Amino acid sequence: MKVAGIDIGSRYIKYVLLEENRLTEFQKRETGHNPLSVCKDLLNCNKPDKLVATGYGRYLLEVHGNIRTITEIKAVASGAKAIFPRCRTIIDIGGQDTKVISLSEEGTVINFEMNDRCAAGTGRFLEIMAKALGYNLEVFGVSYGNKNGPVKINSLCTVFAESEVISLITRGEKREVIAYALHESIANKVISLIRRVDVQDDIVFTGGCAQNPCLKRIIEERLQRKIYVHKNPFLHAAYGAALYAQQEI
User: Fold this and answer.
1) Could you count the other beta carbons within 10 Å of the beta carbon of residue 142?
2) Can you give the three-state secondary structure of 11-77, one letter per residue?
3) 209, 9 in Cβ contact below 8 A?
4) Which strands form 98-103's sheet, in the order they lie side by side?
5) What are 145-151's contacts with CB under 8 Å, separation 24+?
6) Residue 35 half-sphere exposure, CB side, CA atoms within 13 Å?
7) What is the pTM of this model?
């Protein structure tokens, strides 16, 4: 029996296939301009007996394929709890939003806070700032340490922050100093969300931004707690959706 979960995000579509309770396949593809086509291609490669969809574009499958859907909150909570059994708090920074989720010991969602009104502090924000500073996104946040100095980024609005970055560059500030200040500003946004929920250990960091070691380190230092990151932080929501599909059989 094959069950699958598909997470249709704003930047990437993630697909997880489980066979006999084992994760046998994980794929990640760019969402692009035609996410429904990408979804169909993924499903045709290895069609499951049962499928649950989540993410921004989940309703595409609900409308066109009569597929059951669940919210990203439920999906990422289920996936993170399954991978990290002691997980009680989740920080999820994706392409277009930032979420902080509080769980009970059993894995039930107790509370969550979410910033989805703009790209402030999200993966898309990091992409744009990395490009403005001439960094490859894969190494943004990897090659420098605590180099904040006197530089502060006052705005998390993508447009205004980019203008600030350009202004700092023209003033002669080093790009690693500006980059660290950007990471600090994102961490501040995350911390403000965390303070609105009941934070408990263990804390799990999911989403593409969990691959950024500088951001992880700053948040850990501010919270004075260890944060756990899976080797593939993209898969939690799709994995959680697959677990929901499994429950329906």
Assistant:
1) 12
2) CEEEEEEEECCEEEEEEEEECCCCHHHHHHHHHHHCCCCEEEEECCCHHHHHHHHCCEECCHHHHHH
3) no
4) 109-115, 98-103, 89-93, 203-206, 227-228
5) 145/180, 146/180, 147/174, 147/176, 147/177, 147/180, 148/177, 148/180, 148/181, 148/184, 149/177, 151/177, 151/178, 151/180, 151/181
6) 23
7) 0.91
Please give the Cα distance from 249 to 59 (Å, whole number). 22
Q: Mean pLDDT over residues 133-144, rounded? A: 80
Q: What domains can you pick out in the chain, each with its CATH number?
A: 1-84+234-249 (3.30.420.40), 87-229 (3.30.420.40)
Best CA proximity match to 58, nearest among 50, 68, 47: 68
Token readout for 185 is: 């500003």
pLDDT digits (tens, 9 = 90+) for 86-134: 999 999 998 888 999 999 999 999 999 988 666 666 888 888 888 889 8
For the chain, first and last CA: distance in Å?
9
Dihedral of alpha carbons 211, 137, 142, 117, sign: negative
Tokens found for residue 1: 């029996």
